[in-house]
Amino acid sequence: MNTDRSRLARRGFLIATGATALSLTAACGPGATAPDAENPAEGAPRRGGRLRAAFAGGGADETLDPHAANLFVDAARAKALFDKLADFGADLSAVPRLAERWEPNGALDTWRVTLREAAFHDGRPVTAADVLHSYRRIADPRGTFRAKASLEPIDLDASRAVDASTVEFRLKRPYAEFPHVLAAFGAYIVPKDSVSFARPVGSGPFRFVSFQPGRSLLVRRNDAYWDGAPHLDALEFVVAGEESARVGALLGGQVEYAHELNPATARAHEGGGRIEIVRLPGSAMQGFVMKTDRPPFDDPRVRQAFFLIADRRELVDGALSGAGEIGNDLFGKGYQHYLSGLPQRTQDLDRARALLKEAGAEGLTVTLDTAPAATGFVEAAGIFKEQAAKVGVTVEIKVGDKDTYWKDILDHGTFASYRSGAMPIESHISQRLLTGSTTNATHWRRKDFDDLYQQAQSTRDATRRGALYARMQRRLHDEGGFLIWGFADWIIGTAPRVRGVSATAPANTLDWARFDRTWLA
C-alpha cells in the first residue's frame, strides 16, 4: 500500500474534538446563494454533518495567519475563517463581500468603501479601523506578505476611516479597477488588535476549533455569518501531500473532498460511481515564454513562426489528457476584457518555415527549459519538440529543478514552459508585461505599451477602458512573447453524496472551495 495512503488510513482523519463597476452595491446580500453553488437539480440543501477535505499542505510550519496564505490549502482555510472586502467572480471581475459598495472620486485617485453589517466571531462589528489595520499590517515593509504588492497603489498613510463603516482610500495614482485590489489574494480583514493567530478570530462562515500544523484544521458553523450560516455542522481540512494519498483517502471514505487531482486520475475514475469529478474550467493558463530581448526571439518573425508551429489541440490532448481547452496566445480566456473576437490561431508549418527563412533562422536550435513544476510541463515540452522538428527547428529540452524553476526562468534562458493561475487580465498585464513588472518572464518592455496601460487605468468609462485593453491584446497576439497553447481545468474529486460544489469557478475565485455553500446529501 502507498505509504502516504497508509498514514492517512492509520490517522483515519477523525475529528479530534459580479462585474466590476465604479459604483457597485453587492448583489449577493446576507443569506444570498452564490452563483451555481446550490443547484436545484441537486435537491434542497441538507443541514448538518461534517465534511473532510484533503489538500496538499505546507508541513509543520503551517500558520493560520491569513495574510501569510500562499498555498491552496492556506487560501481555503483562510476563506473558511475570514473575509475580504471583495473577491473575484468566475469572470475575474470583483464581487463585493465585506464591502457593500465602493465609489471613486472624479480623478479615480480616491475611493470610498462602505462596509456591510458584519461581525467577527467574538461578536465585535467589522469596522473601518479593522480594515485599515489589516491593510497596514500586510503592507508593512518589514513583512513579506503576498498581498503587499497588490496593495502598493494605496497611500495607507493618507487613507482614513471616515466613520465606523466607511473607509477612504487615497491612491498614489488614478486606478479605475481599484476593486481588484480589494479582492487580492491574501487581503483578508482581521480584528484591529490581532497579534496572534493561534486561535484565530475572523468574520468568516466557520469558527475555529482546533489546529495541528501539517495535519488538520477543524472548524464549526458560524450561525451568525452575515452571508447566511453554512449547511455543514463542521468542516475539517486534512493534509495529504501526494495526489495518490488524497485519492486513496477519498476512495476509502476517510475524506469527502480531494483537491487537485491530475487528468489521468480523473479520466480513470470519471463515471465509475465511486468518485464524482468536478472540473473547474479556465483555472490555469498553459504555454511557453519566449524572451523578447535576446536572440533568437528578439526577432518578431521568429516569435510568430513559433506561434504557428504549435498544434494546440495536440498539446492539450497530450499534455493535459484533454482536460482543458486550446488557447490563442492571450491570457484570460473567458475573463472580463478578454479579446475573444480574434481568429483562432492554428498550426501553419509552411508559413512558419517562410518566417524563419525571412529571419535568417533556418535550422535554428533552441533550448527549452522545463521541469515537473506543474502538470503537463515536461509532456508539453516533448510534444512541441516533435512539432518544431517538422520545420527544421531543433528543440533541446533541459529539465531543471522544480523547486527553483520559477526563479530560474525569470531572467535566464530564452524559451521555457510556463503556467499561470486565474487573475484579472489587468493584473496579468501589470505583473508580467510592463517595463517595471517584477515577474516579466518574456522581458516584454515597450514604453508605448506601458502608456496604453496607464491610459486604461485612468479611464473611467468601462467601454473605453475595454477598448484600450483590446488594443494591448492585439499587440500581444501579433508580437508578444507568450505562446499560450491551452487553459487547463482544475480538477476536484468528491464523494457521491457531496453537493453544492461549483463547477464554474476557477481556482482562487469566490466560489472555489466555498464550503459554506456545500452540504452532504
Description:
The protein starts with a helix and ends with a strand. The strands form 5 sheets. Strands 2, 11, 12, 13, 14, 15, 16, 17, 18, 19 and 20 form an 11-stranded mixed beta sheet that branches. A 5-stranded antiparallel beta sheet has the order 1-6-7-9-8, with helices on one face. It is built from 14 helices and 22 strands. The protein is an alpha+beta fold. It has helices spanning 3-11, 72-81, 128-139, 179-182, 243-251, 263-269, 300-309, 312-319, 349-358, 377-389, 405-411, 425-432, 447-457, 462-479, and strands at 24-25, 50-55, 83-84, 86-88, 94-96, 99-104, 110-115, 154-163, 166-171, 188-189, 206-212, 216-221, 234-239, 257-259, 276-290, 324-326, 365-370, 394-399, 415-421, 482-494, 498-499, 519-520.
Topology overview:
Layout: H1 3-11, E1 24-25, E2 50-55, H2 72-81, E3 83-84, E4 86-88, E5 94-96, E6 99-104, E7 110-115, H3 128-139, E8 154-163, E9 166-171, H4 179-182, E10 188-189, E11 206-212, E12 216-221, E13 234-239, H5 243-251, E14 257-259, H6 263-269, E15 276-290, H7 300-309, H8 312-319, E16 324-326, H9 349-358, E17 365-370, H10 377-389, E18 394-399, H11 405-411, E19 415-421, H12 425-432, H13 447-457, H14 462-479, E20 482-494, E21 498-499, E22 519-520
Parallel strand pairs: 2-13, 2-14, 17-18, 17-19
Antiparallel strand pairs: 1-6, 3-10, 4-5, 6-7, 7-9, 8-9, 11-12, 12-13, 14-20, 15-19, 15-20, 16-20, 21-22
Helix pairs in contact: 1-5, 7-9, 8-10, 13-14
